[in-house]
Specification:
Blueprint lengths: L1 H14 L8 H15 L4 H4 L3 H27 L12 E8 L4 E3 L2 E8 L4 E6 L10 E11 L11 H7 L4 E15 L5 H16 L6 H9 L7 H10 L9 H19 L3 H6 L2 H19 L4 H18 L6 H15 L7 H17 L8 H15 L1 H8 L1 E3 L2 H15 L1 H13 L1 H26 L5 E3 L5 H14 L10 H11 L10 E5 L8 E4 L4 E4 L4 E2 L2 E2 H12 L4 E2 L1 E4 L4 H4 L2 H7 L1 E2 L2 E3 L10 E2 L5 E4 L2 E7 L14 E5 L4 E4 L5 H10 L7 E3 L11 H7 L3 E4 L12 H8 L4 E4 H4 L2 E5 L6 E4 H4 L13
Parallel strand pairs: 4-6, 11-15, 14-16, 15-17, 17-18, 22-23, 23-24, 24-25
Antiparallel strand pairs: 1-3, 1-5, 2-3, 3-4, 5-6, 7-8, 9-10, 9-26, 10-11, 12-13, 19-20, 20-21, 21-22, 26-27
Helix pairs in contact: 1-4, 1-13, 2-4, 8-19, 9-11, 9-12, 11-12, 12-13, 13-14, 14-15, 15-17, 16-20, 17-19, 18-19, 20-21, 22-24
Length: about 775
């Protein structure tokens, strides 16, 4: 079973690496053909030798995993918004399927249209409270699913295809009307919404209160990024998402209560043994808790696993732990084979696999502390490679933090959450009391986690450079977790060594690399020389997150950069300045230059024309502004020129025609090889004289997908095309790296193109 599921998983994973899906008829034919072979009664006699039959069995399961995943993906991609309908007001009719969630931008919800498309919509000023199960006729402006593509960043497009979301947009109140509400439409989410309203009504006003919603309903929206960072720093983020631990503790709690009560009635005991009744009751409670959590991947895994174990126990059958693990994974992948695209799948199944591998078949040591501590050691060490892949970091205090936090949460918080969920419907005052106790207990735990997270060496930052080194690290950790007494465990250290000793590539002396990061509507550029790093702008800030956290810092860590030698903030607009606070907290920054030092919370110098320096044989110089051009907004942007022996680049911020005119008067020759387009390609920039003077071979635009400003403007693109300049847009390329190496032509590497996947290429005329 174990190897069979791995073969199926391998086929599923292979499909997620391709840029184009196979034809539906091909995947259907392969899937049906494989099923016919596997379930043929005379399967074993068809292939002669048993060994050959087993090998073919795994090959067939690989093909079935590939075909099933391809068929499933085709169903998700069967509807897509056409490009001509994007951002235009259109009417859509359908049903609200999710819990409507309030945030700073309005009410956000998921919506299934009659045509079958799944949308994520925001209604800024809904005329009435929205409810799951409502049928609406909405007027909305929609956009295709388009996320930022950059090394180390969260892949929104992969997440969206896993969730079957096909477009995003916002609702226009005019022309929208409620058609009906039926109790039988998505009744589970209606129940969740009813409980959510009850909880919010009695939720204490405290910083930790939103986490109670996460523990009771699985809803984590609106939680500040600073609080998530505390959990990541302590390795306890798994505790605040309903998963196996929570469902297991809830099932144990219900089992104990039912078992105790059932034994008090001899009639009930004669009807059904107490332990059997308690097991059935615990499984029912686990189902309800999983349902209230929205059946996320961790809850699916926990409930299916608990069901298999309970059924086997009731049937007096023993089932090896790896069989349970394999059957559970197969079940989760049958429900949605695209679950492999999200990190929660790997963290959930990886944790259980490590517990089985590290604890099963060992001589059990004495003492409850050692038993508990070993579980934490196994999980903490074994998940290091996975944590580095998804988060570019792992917590050095997770062992101690989890050893304290898990029993605290299990015995002093979760039971009160469960009792509150029950009594809020029966005796609201008592339910509110349990909610208050849970909040106070959580506040105490939070103080401890905050203290751990602020420890100076709480987190180790390291990126996994490639999958080969990841595989070596995983094998190394497995060797280290072998039972004591098996020779060769120490070899695990050698296998893990490349993970920490590998040095990512960097420019040679005299060369430099420029990376324009995909930060949406904004700008962030990284310039690297042999031993130095310059960051030019840091993207925008949105509500409780910013592009520094989401894009810039992950990119720097993937590139192996631990220090910023020079940070240049061109001017004070949010789309250039917003990510600075994250950079200041996350990285050591040696020097800062900007045209708006008063907007930064640290000491910074003005970027004035004439300032220059040299790193590793590469020259850097500010061409603009002078003291006379400060305080002009966009036209005060720092303009930076980078020159090597053969190549040159000009970074212009948001300068417009006024600044371009002054630069033309001050500099006789502005010619460069590569130009970061002024003001993202706005028509307020790019006067013909400036374009001819700069005469770039390559022009780069940093813009947001379907941005409201329509950058780059068609006239600007035509002007650069008139001088035969090659033009690149971050919308199409994702993060774009350009390598200027001595004696070679510039080398362009577009992340979105290099890592193209089938969900990025889905086009249809369904709408």
């Amino acid at each position: 079973m174990f190897l069979s599921v791995l073969a199926f998983l391998a086929g599923d994973l292979y499909l997620q690496t391709v840029a184009h899906l196979p034809p539906l008829i091909l995947s259907a034919a392969v899937g049906i053909g494989v099923l016919c072979f596997i379930f043929c009664k005379q399967f074993s006699s068809l292939f002669g030798k048993q060994g050959q039959s087993i090998k073919l069995h795994y090959v067939l399961l690989f093909l079935f995993g590939w075909a099933y995943s391809a068929w499933y993906a085709q169903q998700h991609l069967s509807w897509s918004l056409t490009s001509k309908m994007e951002t235009k007001p259109i009417q859509v009719r359908g049903i609200i399927t999710s819990l409507p969630l309030l945030d700073a931008n309005g009410t956000r919800f998921e919506f299934v249209m009659q045509q079958g498309g799944h949308l994520r919509l925001t209604w800024r000023q809904a005329p009435q409270p929205l409810r799951a199960g409502d049928e609406w006729l909405l007027t909305a402006r929609l956009k295709r699913i388009h996320g930022m593509q950059s090394p180390g960043a969260f892949d929104f497009e992969a997440w969206a295809i896993q969730k079957n979301l096909r477009a995003t947009g916002y609702v226009m109140t005019n022309g929208s009307q409620l058609l009906s509400h039926k109790w039988y439409r998505y009744p589970l989410n209606q129940l969740r919404q009813h409980l959510q309203e009850k909880i919010i009504q009695y939720l204490p006003a405290s910083p930790t209160a939103p986490w109670l919603l996460a523990l009771m309903l699985g809803e984590k929206e609106g939680i500040p990024s600073e609080q998530w960072q505390i959990l990541r720093n302590t390795g306890t983020n798994h505790l605040m998402a309903i998963a196996g631990l929570h469902i297991g503790m809830m099932a144990l709690f219900i089992y104990t209560i039912i078992n105790w009560l059932w034994r008090r009635s001899y009639r009930l005991v004669l009807m059904l043994p107490a332990n059997h009744a308690a097991a059935i009751g615990a499984l029912s409670a686990a189902f309800l808790y999983s349902a209230l959590a929205g059946f996320s991947i961790p809850t699916q895994r926990a409930f299916i696993m608990l069901t298999i174990i309970t059924v086997a126990w009731l049937m007096r059958r023993q089932m090896p732990a790896w069989h349970v693990w394999g059957l559970t994974m197969f079940g989760v992948l049958l429900l949605n084979p695209l679950n492999t695209l999200v990190e929660s799948f790997w963290l959930s199944f990886g944790t259980i696999a490590l517990i089985i591998y590290g604890m099963d078949g060992r001589v059990k040591p004495r003492g409850w502390w050692w038993k508990w501590g070993r579980v934490q050691w196994v999980i903490g060490l074994g998940l290091v490679p996975v944590s580095l892949v998804f988060f570019q970091s792992f917590s050095l205090v997770s062992f101690v933090a989890n050893t304290i936090a898990i029993p605290w949460l299990s015995f002093a918080i979760l039971p009160f959450c469960l009792l509150s969920s029950i009594f809020l419907f029966i005796l609201p005052a008592l339910g509110a009391g349990f909610l208050w106790i849970a909040d106070k207990s959580l506040a105490g735990l939070w103080l401890l986690l905050t203290w751990f997270s602020h420890y100076s060496h709480a987190v180790w930052y390291q990126a996994v450079p490639n999958y080969f080194i990841l595989l070596l690290a995983v094998l190394g950790c497995l060797l280290l977790l072998l039972p004591r007494g098996i020779p060769g465990r120490w070899l695990g250290v050698i296998w893990c060594a490349p993970l920490f000793l590998y040095v990512p590539g960097k420019p040679m002396r005299g060369d430099f690399w420029v990376s324009m990061l995909d930060v949406g509507q904004g700008l962030a550029v990284i310039v690297r020389t042999a031993n130095h790093t310059l960051v030019y702008d840091a993207g925008a800030k949105y509500n409780d997150t910013d592009m520094g956290e989401r894009i810039v810092v992950p990119y720097l860590r993937v590139a192996g950069i631990r220090q910023i030698d020079e940070l240049v903030i061109s001017h004070g607009d949010n789309d250039h300045l917003g990510g600075v606070p994250t950079l200041l907290n996350a990285m050591q920054i040696k020097s800062i230059h900007t045209s708006v030092p008063e907007k930064l919370l640290v000491n910074a110098n003005y970027c004035l024309g004439g300032q220059s320096w040299q790193w590793d044989g590469v020259n850097f110089s500010f061409l603009y502004p002078s003291e006379n051009e400060l305080g002009l907004g966009n036209d005060s942007s720092c303009v930076l020129r980078v020159d090597s022996r053969e190549r040159s680049v000009l970074l212009t911020g948001d300068i417009e025609k006024y600044a371009e005119k002054i630069m033309l008067a001050q500099h006789a020759n502005l010619s460069v090889d590569l130009l970061i387009a002024p003001h993202h390609g706005s028509k307020t920039s790019a006067q013909i004289g400036f374009i001819k003077s700069v005469a770039p071979d390559f022009v780069l635009y940093s813009t947001g997908y379907r941005n409201r400003y329509h950058f780059p403007h068609a006239k600007v693109s035509a002007a650069y095309a008139g001088i035969q300049a090659q033009q690149w847009n971050s919308v199409d390329t994702g993060t774009l790296q350009v390598k200027f190496n001595h004696g070679k032509e510039p080398q362009f590497e577009a992340y979105r193109i290099k890592h193209a996947r089938y969900w990025m290429d889905a086009k249809s005329d369904s709408f």
